Predict the structure.
Amino acid sequence: VALVARSDTTVPAVAEEIRAMGRRAVPVYGNIADADDCIRIASEVESGFGDQLDILVNSAFYGGLDERFEDADLDKWQRPLKVNYLGTLRLTQAMLPLLRSARGRVVIVGSSNGRLVTPFSGPYCASKFALEALADALAGADLGAAARPLVDALVAGARYGAPLSSVLELVADE
């Protein structure tokens, strides 16, 4: 498993969990909002695992700003789109040769905020809504005929009611 992240905050612990299961884990650090970093990340993944990638799970997160639109600095509103949407797009494009070799899959992790907009979260919600459209576009796009990767979108989080973590805790207790 190649674990791609901006920083080493949680990656080492996750890598150790994977290794404890007898699997290989390689941390790769980079900023998916940067096109050159995406190319470097793909190169490091290829160096670590060869020329085939079975699955790419895109789970980018930049929450954005909690500010009213009328007071907003719209230049700052671009950041969630650059990370969550364009970063996902760039990394997926950089990984396509490896995905094609393995007839791999692309998973795009969205958010319920892609459909249910909450107050003061416009930039984040817009970026997650864009991911849903991206998944639909890539699923139907010409990504290489017979070697086309399959694209799936997951929407994380409960839409109504208790937060998903609360629901999972109840299920775990049962």
In short: The CA atoms of residues 6 and 30 lie 5 Å apart. The longest helix spans residues 74-102. The mean pLDDT is 81. Strands lie at 2-5, 26-29, 55-58, 105-111, 150-156.
